[in-house]
Design goal:
This protein is an alpha+beta fold. The protein contains 13 helices and 23 strands. The structure holds flavin-adenine dinucleotide and succinic acid.
Length: 540
C-alpha cells in the first residue's frame, strides 16, 4: 500500500541549539516593490533585516515595463479606476481593497516621485498611457519601458541609506519559523554559512509570484513560488490559486528565452495579426487589442489553432522607427537582437504565464492567518484583482500594501514584549533520503505539464492528468532533504503547482483568467473564492 503523502512542516531538519541565529524586530523577505516599500515605511527606531535570494534587484519588479496605474489625468478619477478594476475582476474583487488602492494611488505616486523616481513627461505633464481594460490613460512610465528598473533602483537606494536596515543578499528563505500558531521569523540559508535562523517579532513575506512553474513565462528565473509554499507549510490559508494571468504578447523566437512585449505597445497603437496578415482582435472584442488580457490571450490561442501556426504577430509598423525607439527602447533593442526591426517587421508573439492573482490570503492590513506573519505584493491575495488583474495595478498594489504591512507590524510591536522570544525551535529530525535525482529533468517535465494542462485553456481530463503526474513526482521528491536551493525550489514548485491544479480542477466554470473549455460559461454559484490550507491530512 502507498504511504500517505503528508507535507513535512520544514524542508530541512534543524535545531536552534546548533545553528547561527540573528535577531531583529522585523524581518522582510523579498526585495521587490512590496518588500522595499514595507522597509521604507517602517519606523527608523526598529531593527529591520531584509533578505533576498539573489541580489537586491532580483525578482519581477525590475523587469516591469508598462508602468504603474494611478488616476492622475484631469478626465480621470479614483472612482473610474475603481470601476475598471472591479469590472475586470469578474465578481471576485474585494471592493474595499479596490477602493483603498485606487484612492491611495495618487499619493503613492507622489511619494515615489519624492523618493527620486522620474516618470516620463510629455509637454510638461506626466505622460500617461493606456492598457487593456483601463478606459482612461492612467499608466505612468519611466525611461520608456523600464519603469520597474527605475522604481526599483530608487527604492533600493533609499533602503540602503537607512541605518536601521541590514540587507542580506543571496540569502534563501527555506521556511517560516512557527511556534504556538505564531510566526517567529524564518529559517534561511547562505552558501557561506549554511542554514541559519532569522528570529523576528514580525515577519513580512514579499517573495513575489510563481510564474516559473510554467514552461512559457515572462517571469525571471527566481520566481518559483517559495513564499506561497512556505506560508502553506506554516499554516497560512491560500486563496484563488487557479487564477493565473497569461500575458498575450511574449516575443516568440524558437530557442530564445521568452521576453515580454509590453501591453503599452498595443496601448500606443500596435495591432495583432494572424499568419495570413489579418487583424483579428476586432472580431473577438469591441475593444480589440485593448480588451482585457484574458480575452486577448485566448483569442491569440484560437487564431494559432485556426491557422495552425505556433504564434501570431504584433504589428507596430505604424508607429515609426523614431517613436518606437524613444518610447520603447528596451523592446526595440530586444527585437533587434533577433534581427527584427519593429518599424518594418512583424514581431512573432504568443501568450505566456505572467502573474499569480491568488496567493497568501490577507486582510486589508496585510495580516495572514498566522499571527505576526504579514504578506504583500504578488505573494499575497488581498482581493484587489478578483479573477483578473488590470495591467499596471500590481506595482501599485505592492506600494500600497507594502506600506500597510509596515504599519501593521509597527502597531503590533507596540503591544509586544520588548525582548524577543528565544524558545528552542526545531524541525523534526527526518530520514535524509538524498537519492539520485535529476532535478532539472523533473523541473522541465513539471513546467511542460503545467503549460499543457493548466495553461490558458483547461479542462477536467487534462487537469486530472496533470494532478496525477505532479502527485507522482511529489511522491519521490517531497520526501528528500536537499542541501541547496535548486532542490528546495523544486519542492516549492511542486507544492504550488499541485495547489494551482487542484483549485483549477475544483472551479467548474470559466471566470476571468480561469478558462475551462468543458465549462465555458461563468456560473453564478461559483462567485466565491477557493481557500486552501494544510489540514495535516493525507495530501493526496
Ligand atoms: P518581486 O518583485 O518578484 O520580488 C520578490 C522578491 O522576493 C525578490 O527579491 C526575490 O529575490 C525574493 N525571494 C523570492 N523567494 C525567496 C526566497 N525563498 N528567499 C529569499 N528571497 C526570496 N506590473 C505592473 O504593475 N506594471 C508593469 O508594467 C508590469 N510589468 C511586468 C513585466 C514583467 C516582465 C513581469 C514579470 C511582471 C510585470 N508586472 C508588472 C508584474 C509586477 O512586476 C509584479 O507583480 C511585482 O513587481 C511583484 O512585486 P513583488 O515585490 O511582490 O515581487
Ligand atoms: C506590460 O507591460 O504589458 C505588463 C504590465 C503588467 O503586467 O501590469
Amino acid at each position: 500500500m502507498r504511504k500517505p503523502l503528508r507535507l513535512r512542516r520544514y524542508l530541512v531538519h534543524f535545531s536552534s541549539y546548533n545553528i547561527p541565529q540573528v535577531f531583529t524586530d522585523v524581518l522582510v523577505i523579498g526585495s521587490g516593490v512590496a518588500g522595499l516599500s514595507a522597509v521604507l515605511a517602517l519606523p527608523e527606531d526598529l531593527s529591520v533585516l531584509l533578505i533576498t535570494k539573489g541580489d537586491l534587484s532580483n525578482g519581477s519588479t525590475a523587469e516591469a515595463q508598462g508602468g504603474v496605474a494611478a488616476a492622475l489625468a484631469p478626465d480621470d478619477s479614483p472612482e473610474d479606476h475603481f470601476a475598471d478594476t472591479v469590472e475586470a475582476g469578474c465578481g471576485l474583487c474585494d471592493e474595499e481593497a479596490v477602493r483603498l488602492v485606487t484612492e491611495d494611488a495618487p499619493e503613492r505616486i507622489r511619494e515615489l516621485i519624492g523618493r527620486g523616481v522620474m516618470f516620463d513627461r510629455e509637454e510638461g505633464d506626466y505622460a500617461l498611457t493606456r492598457e487593456g481594460g483601463h478606459r482612461r490613460r492612467r499608466i505612468l512610465h519611466a525611461n520608456g519601458d523600464a519603469t520597474g528598473r527605475v522604481m526599483h533602483d530608487a527604492l533600493a537606494e533609499r533602503v540602503r541609506e537607512r541605518p536601521n536596515v541590514q540587507v542580506f543578499e543571496r540569502t534563501f528563505a527555506l521556511d517560516l519559523l512557527t511556534l504556538d500558531s505564531g510566526c517567529h521569523g524564518a529559517l534561511t540559508w547562505q552558501a557561506t554559512h549554511g542554514v541559519m535562523m532569522a528570529r523576528a517579532k514580525q515577519t513580512i513575506l514579499a517573495t513575489g509570484g510563481c510564474g516559473r512553474v510554467y514552461r512559457e513565462t515572462t517571469n525571471p528565473e527566481s520566481v518559483t513560488g517559495d513564499g506561497i509554499a512556505m506560508a502553506f507549510r506554516a499554516g497560512a490559508s491560500l486563496q484563488d490559486l487557479e487564477f493565473i494571468q497569461f500575458h498575450p504578447t511574449i516575443l516568440y523566437v524558437a530557442g530564445a528565452s521568452r521576453a515580454l512585449i509590453s501591453e503599452a505597445v498595443r496601448g500606443e497603437g500596435g495591432v495583432l495579426r494572424n499568419r495570413e496578415g489579418e487583424r483579428f482582435m476586432p472580431g473577438y472584442h469591441p475593444d480589440a487589442e485593448l480588451a482585457p488580457r484574458d480575452i486577448v490571450s485566448r483569442s491569440i490561442v484560437e487564431e494559432m489553432k485556426r491557422t495552425d501556426h505556433p504564434h501570431v504577430y504584433l504589428d507596430v509598423t505604424s508607429m515609426g522607427a523614431e517613436r518606437m525607439e524613444s518610447r520603447f527602447p528596451t523592446i526595440t533593442a530586444l527585437c533587434r537582437r533577433f534581427e527584427l526591426e519593429p518599424s518594418e517587421d512583424l514581431i512573432p508573439v504568443r501568450p505566456a504565464a505572467h502573474y499569480m492573482i491568488g496567493g497568501v490570503r490577507t486582510d486589508l492590513r496585510g495580516r495572514t492567518d498566522v499571527e505576526n506573519l504579514l504578506a504583500c505584493g504578488e505573494v499575497a491575495c488581498t482581493g484587489l484583482h478578483g479573477a483578473n488583474r488590470l495591467g499596471s495595478n500590481s506595482l501599485l498594489e505592492g506600494l500600497v500594501f507594502g506600506r500597510r504591512c509596515a504599519r501593521t507590524a509597527a502597531e503590533n510591536l507596540r503591544t509586544m514584549p520588548e525582548a524577543l522570544s528565544v524558545h528552542a525551535l526545531q524541525g523534526l529530525p527526518q530520514e535524509p533520503a538524498y537519492g539520485n535525482l535529476n532535478l532539472t529533468d523533473v523541473e522541465n517535465s513539471l513546467k511542460s505539464v503545467m503549460w499543457r494542462d493548466v495553461g490558458v485553456e483547461r479542462e477536467g481530463e487534462g487537469l486530472d492528468e496533470a494532478l496525477e503526474m505532479i502527485t507522482f513526482w511529489c511522491r519521490y521528491v517531497m520526501d528528500k532533504e536537499f542541501r541547496e536551493p535548486q532542490g528546495w525550489q523544486l519542492q516549492n514548485m511542486l507544492v504550488v503547482s499541485r495547489l494551482i491544479a487542484m483549485s483549477a480542477r475544483q472551479r467548474e466554470e470559466s471566470r476571468g483568467v480561469h478558462f475551462r473549455s468543458d465549462f465555458p460559461e461563468a456560473d453564478p454559484g461559483w462567485q466565491r473564492h477557493i481557500v486552501i490550507s494544510d489540514t495535516g491530512q493525507d495530501w493526496l
